[in-house]
Fold:
Amino acid sequence: MVTMTDYAGSQPAWCPGCGNFGILNALKKALVELGLEPHKVLMVSGIGQAGKLPHYTRANVLNVLHGRALPAAAGAKIANPELSVIAVGGDGDGYGEGGNHFLHSVRRNHNITYLVHDNQVYALTKGQASPTSDRGFVTKTTPHGAPAPLNSLAVAIAAGGTFVARGFSGDVEHLAGLIKSGIQHRGFALIDILQPCVSFNHQNTYAWYKERVYKLEEASYKPGDRSAAMEKALEWGERIPIGVIYRQERPAFEDEITVLTKGPLVRQATDPMQVGSLFDEFV
Amino acid sequence: MGVDINLMVGGEAGQGVQSAGFIIAKALARCGLSVFADQDYESRVRGGHNFFRIRASDREVSAISETLDILVALDRLSIDLHQKEVPGDGAIIFDADKVKDVGSSGNLLGMPLERMAVEATGNKQAANVVALGAAMALIGYDAVAMNSVVLDYFGSGETGKANAAAAGRGHEYAKANVKADSQRRVSPLGGQKRMLLNGNEAVALGALAAGCKFVSAYPMTPSTTIMEYMAGKADELGIVVVQPEDEISAINMIVGAAYAGVRAMTATSGGGFCLMVEGLGLAGMTETPIVVVDGQRAGPAIGLPTRTEQGDLQFALNASHGDFPRAVLAPASVEDAFWLTVKAFNLAEEYQLPVIILTDQYLASSYATAERFNLAKVQIRRGQLLSETDPAKLERYKRYEITASGVSPRAFPLQSTALVVADSDEHNMEGHLIEDAETRTAMMLKRQSKLEGLKKEISGPRTYGPAQAQITLIGWGSTLGALRETVDAAAQDGLSVNLVHFSEIWPFPDEAATMALRGAKRTFAVENNATAQFARLLRAETGHQVSGSILKFDGRPFTPAHILGQLRKEVA
Structure:
């Protein structure tokens, strides 16, 4: 039986009150509720405050470069699809530095779960605008205000996403449910998580989010219609929807690789002699 | 007098230069000759000027010649550009309907190539095959034997039959219209048939034999055919080939796959390798074994996209910030490309680091005959793996345990209940990120200490020619064939020249290099780059200062005649 103790890691080096704590708790809760043992889980993270998350729990960990969590996660998943692969990063990491990987990972529909800690600011480098900063957000690098934000959920739907959701780190219970659904989804599950940065974002605070967020499942919303989902993804301002915005069934990238039907690549034997049959073609 | 045939097929992109050249090369290889062929093509899909140049001999050949016995000119430009390479007794095959003003010297074989193609196949596109048939007749190649090579290439269906008919017509025409004395006879030599393959195919076969299970690569000339070949064999051999969004993704994917436990590789050219540099450092820091093929082309930036250079050596040695051990191998031939790729995977896993294979456009697309590689000699050494039967140890598993060799036994996720933690941040033995000075220093020393064992695995240079010589040529990578033939040609010319040639570059075999160069009188670095990059490395690692250098950076490969000519100027 898997318990929270199995996922107890070292003391986080995040600021007191950081929104990351809610995400860490929700993730652990989801893994425990799914009964997944730590050695069956691989967390791949990028760089930023979010990228440190795997060190604060217990699992297999591959902490890679800024923006590159998704390709590394995809490589590991293809090598061993029996691993539950969870990629973790921030908004700058995933939508800025790793933007191209984000687009194409969604499109290819790798069977991984992607948690984006979206605090709308660069926190590790102490407070610069991010790809999701609200328009006009003033920082040291954007003294005249940030340009328009990227709507990652809409982008994911447009790119062929099969599981597109938004959570809020201030509602751990709800977020844990989303993460569970994401892990169970066969395909690429994007969970963009609203996460207040108590040190560098004094605009999008807990209070600011709490006033605005509402749960889609309580609003009798059905996430199966792509056009309706696109409209819902674009909703931002007075009211901000959280929950599963879009969901569809499409074979995951790994499910369509013929070789993987014979089992994980890591367990497939190697025999140099089998190459001999190829030599005839060159004669 | 033995057989030594030099033949070129030239024409526009889209005219089937490559197909015709390849079929001729294969036909020559099938009669037991040693064949070497290189390709020169422009970065375009139609038009321009491309050529496929073949040399075949009953002696071993490994370089191209500057003179031609037969020029198959599929367009007018090919005659204009290459007629000067054809001596008086050579022959030029061309389409007499299209090219009418080339004069009437005895060696011109004008024939209605396109008309004959239409008659045979209904399509003028087969003019290249008609022409190759004519070329085969000129060297006395048996029509029936030719027919089977053409069918093997095009398949035995309608297309194959039509092309065989086209080749047959070309053969008959040339046989009937050319005086017998201009024919160079080729006859089957018998014996074991050898393979004809190019550098990229050899790298791909090496990777497959080595048990590479995962390839992620972004198409880039000249390396694309590595991933194409492997993708074509993926289902048969149980490997996965992915074409990701960019080279950054490619290298990070293979790091992920290698971390998870499979042998993984990417292949690119210099520009793509530029994008991979940060990922290379990731492999260095996380001690993840990966193999990266850089098929060099003329740079910087887009440079000459389809042409050769050895300009990435210093880049490969130094790519990425910070210090970490790596290996750099530069195959000298098609055969070397196979074996060094096998070696690359072993070094990568035994020492848990990135290994770079430096080929170049010349090696990648040049065809050579080779014996079937002896697969019984392929060893797969995966390095230290944590025993799956020692659960007590697994509970305390430390991915980066400090050991005498610097190599920490690897475990893979899900192999047991042990957790495998790898980090691009500086980390402790458990793999968790740290910032303290003491651990940082210990980890850096641990990684660097792997170089000591790695260095013992590196082979010293090949030597060729007389033990004592007035001049010693120094080269590396794909230039071996041209340099060997230069040594032979120099000897015939009365020049005393020998060769020291490197294909395993890093960690630098300094002691072996010093030994090989002991007693050398005048040394010349011969390199396909503008700044004698290898000579700089040699000086840095051994203190040896070359007397001079012969450099070529026009995107074209060396020929023995060119090297010898330059050498004569240097020593005059």
